[in-house]
């Protein structure tokens, strides 16, 4: 399952530095607009202590974490939907990701140029949102022109689609994102092929200064943004500090975080939230060779989850033996778990749960 989040924002807000930090790939991060032209792609591990716990019990040769893809997309500017700043190309890159990570500058620094010559997180957010909205309006209006006659002639599917698109037009014209709408599963299926930008879930990353880490709401730029978004899917991160943390060993990282009064890094929170926002969960497999996490869509039936390991597993599925992570962590012995009746034998109608340890039985 190869889902991805695109890192977007105005130029010089910290996007490429954030990407460097997340992936430990040293892409160009420069103090001028459009330092990034082609999107950079990085695959990162999803932090999961459960894999470490299982490995301490099983002692495998290796641990394999689930992964997530981040794409660093070049900075957008006002007028991007009309081609400003190579905007059309950048917007196309955004269409290809599953979710958005919108980085917004919430710090003052005279040495780092702001493209609008002032720090105003609300204005910055609205510039990006409006460009996404304008781009979606163009696509939706074009689609309406193509299906209007068909819908008016009585075609039920076309009529249903037209009604949905007219609702979307109204939402976009009110400067609201499609993701804020109450859409049915059928609505989402209709929209999926359009890859509309404002239909993608968004995490807002407020790039704050170092002194605001312990009490982000003391940062007036961040508080203004937090209030504007009503706290929804917003994470305060000092990208500069996170970049320093990413260069430390695990032991040094824990000490540094402790000194800052933090339980986990902002990046760990970001990766976990991106994972959760796309309804992704993890099941585990283990053996002498490896303890491994596997990512699956929340609500998946056992055969569908098994197909993440190999596509043949869906059709060849017979049953699954399930142990709960909590039971393995507490009891630490598979045979004792069986003796206590805590191993479940499940069939095709079982919904895999986050944290299930699975052994799939299939036809050879």
Overview of this protein structure:
By secondary structure, this protein is α/β, with parallel strands linked by helices. Helices cover 41% and strands 20% of the residues. The protein is built from 14 helices and 12 strands. About 5% of the residues have low confidence.
Which SSEs are present, and which pair or pack?
Elements: E1 4-8, H1 15-23, E2 40-45, H2 49-58, E3 62-64, E4 67-72, H3 87-95, E5 99-106, H4 121-152, H5 156-173, H6 185-192, E6 202-208, H7 220-229, E7 234-237, H8 239-246, H9 250-260, H10 266-277, E8 280-286, E9 290-297, H11 302-306, H12 312-316, E10 317-324, H13 325-331, H14 334-339, E11 344-346, E12 356-362
Parallel strand pairs: 1-4, 1-5, 3-9, 5-6, 6-7
Antiparallel strand pairs: 2-4, 8-9, 10-11, 10-12
Task: Please provide a brief summary of the model.
With 364 residues, the protein is an alpha/beta fold.
Spans of at least 5 consecutive residues whose pLDDT stays below 50 are 25-37, 83-87
Major β-sheet annotation: 6 strands, mixed
Distance between the termini: 24 Å
| Helix share bin | 40-55%
Strand content: 15-25%
The pLDDT mean sits at: 88
- Helix/strand class: alpha/beta
Query: Widest sheet: strand order?
Result: 2-4-1-5-6-7
Shape: flat
State the helix count: 14
Over the alpha carbons, how many angstroms does the gyration radius reach?
23 Å
Number of strands: 12
- The ordered string of helix (H) and strand (E) elements is EHEHEEHEHHHEHEHHHEEHHEHHEE
């Amino acid at each position: 399952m190869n889902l991805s989040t695109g890192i977007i924002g105005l130029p010089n807000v910290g996007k490429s530095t954030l990407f460097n930090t997340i992936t430990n790939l040293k892409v160009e991060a420069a103090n001028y607009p459009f330092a990034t032209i082609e999107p950079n792609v990085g695959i990162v591990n999803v932090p999961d202590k459960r894999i470490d716990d299982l490995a301490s019990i099983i002692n495998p040769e290796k641990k394999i974490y689930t992964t997530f893809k981040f794409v660093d997309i070049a900075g957008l500017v006002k007028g991007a939907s009309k081609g400003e700043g190579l905007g059309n190309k950048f917007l196309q890159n955004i269409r290809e990701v599953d979710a958005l990570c919108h980085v917004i500058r919430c710090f003052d620094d005279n040495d780092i140029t702001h493209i609008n010559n002032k720090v105003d997180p609300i204005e910055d957010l609205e510039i990006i949102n409006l460009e996404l909205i304008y781009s979606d309006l163009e696509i939706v209006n074009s689609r309406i022109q193509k299906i209007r006659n068909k819908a008016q002639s009585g075609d039920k599917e076309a009529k249903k689609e037209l009604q949905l698109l007219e609702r979307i037009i109204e939402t976009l014209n009110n400067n609201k994102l499609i993701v804020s709408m109450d859409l049915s599963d059928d609505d989402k299926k209709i929209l999926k092929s359009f890859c509309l930008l404002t239909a993608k879930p968004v995490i807002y990353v407020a790039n704050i200064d170092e002194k605001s880490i312990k009490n982000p709401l003391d940062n007036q730029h961040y508080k203004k943004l937090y209030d504007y978004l009503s706290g929804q899917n917003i994470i305060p991160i000092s990208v500069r500090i996170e970049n320093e943390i990413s260069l430390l060993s695990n032991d040094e990282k824990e000490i540094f975080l402790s000194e800052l009064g933090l339980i986990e890094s902002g990046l760990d929170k970001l990766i976990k939230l991106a994972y959760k926002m796309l309804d992704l969960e993890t099941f585990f497999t283990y053996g002498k060779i490896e303890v491994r996490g596997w990512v699956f869509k929340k609500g998946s039936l056992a055969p569908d989850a098994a197909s993440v390991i190999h596509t043949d597993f869906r059709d060849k599925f017979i049953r699954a033996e399930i142990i709960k992570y909590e039971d393995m962590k507490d009891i630490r012995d598979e045979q004792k778990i069986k003796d206590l009746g805590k191993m479940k034998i499940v069939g095709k109608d079982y919904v895999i749960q986050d944290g299930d340890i699975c052994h799939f039985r299939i036809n050879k």
